[in-house]
Amino acid sequence: MKAFIRACAFALTAGFGLAGTATAQPVKVGVIFPLSGGAGPQGQHLVKSIQSMAALINESGGVLGRQIVIEARDDESTPAVGVSRANELISAGVSVIIEGWNSPVTLAMQPVISRAGILDITAISKADPILSGEGNPLAIRLNSSNSQDGAVIADYIANRLKAKRVAFLTQNDAYGNGAQASIEAELKKLNYSYEKVAEEKFPFTQADFRVAITNVRAANPDVTVAINASEGLGMPALIRQARQARVPGQLIAAVGTIAPSVIGISGEASNGVIGADIYFPDVEPFASNPVNKTYIAKVQGMHKLTPDKFMALGAASLQVWAMAANEVKSLDREAIAKRIRGGTFRKTILGDMNFAPNGQLASKHYVFSVQNQKMVVEAK
Predict the structure, then answer these.
(1) Please, how many CA atoms are within 13 Å of residue 349, restricted to the half-sphere of its CB?
(2) Is residue 1 over pLDDT 60?
(3) Do 9 and 137 have their domain in common?
């Protein structure tokens, strides 16, 4: 634990001076993710991960000498519900809101949270407009964007598979359509010649893809790109049904949509699926990172879970916010956002974190294949 305290480099002396006593009022941190429905299991794990990080920070002295209390809400993967939950947390007096599984929900909440003068950190949602500054001029996001992801998938299609017949199974919303558009734009940048032989769209809540998959199979693709953010229901169902239908060619999942939980549900059908992501607990450079190892041990000890990428991003969102608040010696939204946007944070659970001026965390992608129901990172 001493190593973790040193690594986080929290400005505790200044913080204790401001807080005065251990009985100081806690700092409320709002958390909004889907806790029910298709993404409910992942959202619940995210909350547990953030609670684990809060425990580590509290053990290290808290934020400005005050303990963190997590206030979690269920957005039900619905924009209107997300807005309602954001208003609940605003009324509860939270100092920051960490949110974002579904891009449409994030985009709906952003202006509400911004108008309330509360810092809004997006942990997962990928749509590029989240960082446009339109809904939130002080936007911050930890997960990779659709644009960043599109380049990775396009490179694999063009330079590794050399596929000429490409099909898309795409979630019909800001996330899914944006992800597909980014892949196609990156293929165009590569000046890569291919034919889009099928394009099937579906809502986030869909779990029966048999008609869409039959149409894709009839198109005889070399590669099918599956873009589905419903990791608890939709993506496992899509994988199983694609295997049962014997869709030809390679199945590639959009970046960040294959987690251990997806593999656990889809079982042997997931073997052979290609994906990419930005964090793996047991792959370098994360495996030997002492701060990450302490975090993993805390999550396992508190919740008997091994963190996946989603959980790590949620925890890192809280960690970087706490580090910034202790460094600027304030809970002020603008001061903290100014420190994070364009800034660098060293020795976090993700290693050194570098943010672009628009609030986007820089990420390195790792391509993997599922083998024997495990994610195996491909050698560079």
Answers:
(1) 34
(2) no
(3) yes
